[in-house]
Amino acid sequence: MDLKSSHASPVLADPTPVNKPRLGVHSSLLPYSQTGTTFSSGLYISIPRKKPGMVDDVSSNGWLDAMLSSSPPRKKLIKDMNSDAVVADETVDHAYISWMLKFPSAINAFDQVTSAAKTKKIVMFLDYDGTLSPIVDDPDRAFMSDAMRSAVKSVAKYFPTAIISGRSRDQVYKLVGLTELYYAGSHGMDIMGPVRYDEADNHLDYGSSSDKQGKEVKLFQPAREFIPMINEVFRTLVESTKGIKGAKVENHKFCASVHYRNVDEKNWPIIAQCVHDLLKDYPRLRLTHGRKVLEVRPVIDWDKGKAVQHLLDSLGLSGRDDVLPIYIGDDRTDEDAFKVLREGNQGFGILVSPVPKETQAFYSLRDPAEVMEFLNSLVNWKELNGAEAAAVPDRKRAS
């Protein structure tokens, strides 16, 4: 599913060199089994044998460092009304200002974005937590505002729009509640979307389902055979962490998440060790880090970047010079999508963060409030410049 066009895109400047961020744990730290379940799909990754003499605990393999770095403390930021400078606790945050020179605000650079989009069809991809909703202590209460829902609905009126979340697809659909969108849950391992042009492509795993109105829709679930394993892992993690105050385990169907946002930091090593010990028995699963969350996922060659590629392909919009994908997200898992757009020189990644971070994005926004401002600006720009083009190609929509 190669989305790279044979024609160079004229709209993006040469990408700024970015150091590759550390996402999750290197596969050499995971166990290897020759007798494990075999899978026929070409999506699965082979795992090398663990090196002799490697110490097998979380303090030696960098997990704790990754847990600390995955969720840097958020400073209270305010914007100087007389300039673009950002001040933190009345002191100029020089690091953030310097970072924004490299990754400018998508609002301040809005003319550059729309200039690139003048002769192109925008396709919008959005993360949920930290992008459309604020980060909160209880993930079950991460609600998007009515104003944000209205903004997303308006964007979807003019541009194909998808939500790609680490949450389960059903959960994020329930939180968003808009039938105009495409939904990809479990970091893109559970996609409900349009029918692919060439369904004879036998490396894609499609299944049929029905939407809320009873109409047939298509599901793409490249890790479907892992569902029983994830259910088992979820039950094990619930049991092993039940004595840790503040720990919360969620089953996102194709991945299991252990939240430690409300866990005392002195107990983080216990959380990490629980996950570490469990993975010894599941060589086909791996760990990734999110914002104060550890996620256990199948070891397959699939992520949010692959989900973006798949949705573009399904919409018939891949490999085209007249398409401009925009992806807005705030987490490490969104970096896979930013990387796809940057390396393919085909669109813009926008990182939502009030603090400097390593990123593959082109632009930045501080918080969901600025995300909403950017989305509304896109809608206003489209309405002022005419909305003659339909938001979605002439194909069946999926809720």
Automatic annotation (TrEMBL):
Alphabetized GO MF terms: trehalose-phosphatase activity
The name this protein goes by in its record: Trehalose 6-phosphate phosphatase
Keywords from the UniProt entry: Hydrolase, Stress response
Function: Removes the phosphate from trehalose 6-phosphate to produce free trehalose. Trehalose accumulation in plant may improve abiotic stress tolerance.
Pfam families registered for this protein in UniProt: Trehalose_PPase
Keyword match Hydrolase: yes
Pathway(s) this gene product operates in, as recorded in its UniProt entry: Glycan biosynthesis; trehalose biosynthesis
Cofactor(s) required, per the database record: a divalent metal cation
Family named by the database record: Belongs to the trehalose phosphatase family.
Reactions this protein catalyses: alpha,alpha-trehalose 6-phosphate + H2O = alpha,alpha-trehalose + phosphate
Organism encoding this protein: Kalanchoe fedtschenkoi
Matching PANTHER family: TREHALOSE 6-PHOSPHATE PHOSPHATASE, TREHALOSE-PHOSPHATE PHOSPHATASE F-RELATED
Superkingdom as given in the UniProt entry: Eukaryota
EC annotation from Swiss-Prot or TrEMBL: 3.1.3.12
GO BP annotation list: trehalose biosynthetic process
